[in-house]
Amino acid sequence: MMDWTDRHCRTFHRALSQHTWLYTEMVTTGALLHGDVARHLDFAAAEQPVALQLGGSEPADLAQAAKLGEQWGYAEINLNCGCPSERVQRGAFGACLMAEPQLVADCVKAMRDVVSVPVTVKHRIGIDTIEHYGFVRDFVGTIAEAGCETFIVHARNAILKGLSPKENREIPPLRYEVAYELKREFPQLEILINGGIVTYDEVAAHLQHVDGVMIGREAYHQPYFLAEMDQRFYGADTPVKTRHDAELAMQEYVAKFVEQGGYMGAVTRHMLGLHRGIHGGRGWRRVLSDARRMHAARTRGAVVALFEEARSHLRPDWLEAA
């Protein structure tokens, strides 16, 4: 979710769901150990529960980065062993780490030794042409011996050469049954499933076989998908947030951000799917994606005026509908 799930995106998603776990963009150990820590790790308490996803392959560096994450208040440290991009591979981390399970185990142990929050691993079910179940079974088993208790399984292979990251999320076939088999073989572990899940019914069906579901692209491009999660899957008895509820919360957030010198478009770019499929949604998106007007909005009044203009394209009954 690099360049997607930044703190503004997470604040927006939290305006729709109070209980789903949120994950940061993948942050490399180098960015934390040699860069601006606050820029990468700062987040608002209202975003919790939120997990820090790390990219790296040096146990000592990951331990130091994980310790920073815990100090900044993250509820989980997640190691990315699933990203297939060539840029990530050049750094010797991401999906290519699946070929080195003992190294991943060493990384997990190094992090667990210095933090008290859970250390989890996100991974694929195979790499390149390696599709036999034994490969991912041994990967999970080796890392579990190092103390990892939670695995987030993107149920596709990662093709390390020849496919872009986008193609890697679409072309390798989904094989959910591999994640199901991992749960059967390792009942003591928490197994979550990821990949191509777009409906509540699909979430419910997967939960018959595994412990949790991670939603990526659907939650970003169709964010209102999150609105009923609390009621459907966490037993919440609070009313489902309307689109208007979420938008007004973000309007206030954007206004404060702009008053502090921020750029309005840095937030609204994450919101553009809120009214997707709603009559007038295209006009709403056009207003809140106009870079020239975003740059000109430097006061609370200007922010509110832009949101009100955007809403003028929507039918009130659709805006208030849950």
Q: Which helices and strands appear, and what pairs or packs with what?
A:
Blueprint: H1 7-16, E1 22-28, H2 29-34, H3 37-41, E2 50-55, H4 59-71, E3 76-81, H5 86-90, H6 101-112, E4 119-127, H7 133-145, E5 150-158, H8 165-168, H9 176-185, E6 190-194, H10 200-206, E7 212-214, H11 217-221, H12 229-233, H13 243-259, H14 265-268, H15 281-288, H16 291-296, H17 300-311, H18 316-320
Parallel strand pairs: 1-2, 2-3, 3-4, 4-5, 5-6, 6-7
Helix pairs in contact: 1-13, 4-6, 6-7, 13-17, 15-17
> For the residues shown, what is the average pLDDT?
94
CATH topology name of the largest domain? TIM Barrel
The coarse overall form would be globular
- CATH homologous superfamily descriptor of the largest domain: Aldolase class I
Describe the structure in your own words.
The protein is an alpha/beta fold. It folds into 2 domains: 7-233, Alpha-Beta Barrel (TIM Barrel); 243-320. Helices cover 46% and strands 14% of the residues. The protein contains 18 helices and 7 strands. The protein has a 7-stranded parallel sheet with strand order 1-2-3-4-5-6-7. Helix 7 links the parallel strand 4 and strand 5. Helix 13 (243-259) packs antiparallel against helix 17. The longest helix has 17 residues, at 243-259. It is globular and about 55 Å long. The model has no long low-confidence stretch (mean pLDDT 94).
